[in-house]
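Lab notebook, bench 4. Still working through the backlog of constructs that have no structural model yet. Next entry is a single chain of 81 residues. Request: give me the structure tokens for it.
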Amino acid sequence: MATDKIDFEATMSRLETLVAQMESGELTLEQSVAVFEEGVTLTQQAQTALQAAEQTVKVLLEQRGELRTAPLNEVADSDTP
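Model written out:
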């Protein structure tokens, strides 16, 4: 799981870098297209990681005997005394 977090964080960091490059206006058209393409791929990877995390939360809730879906922050709040 720690590797997943690092990969997700690295993906988000790279996306931020790509956005900054595109917003700078200093890229050629070809460079912009390449950066955009990389961004789309990274976005898909990030979405997949988020969906996997959401599924993990659902499974953990089911294991606790709860058959509902809850936002991650709601689960954390219910665990505090």
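Notes after review: The radius of gyration is 18 Å. The domain at 2-79 is CATH 1.10.287 (Helix Hairpins). Flag for follow-up if needed.
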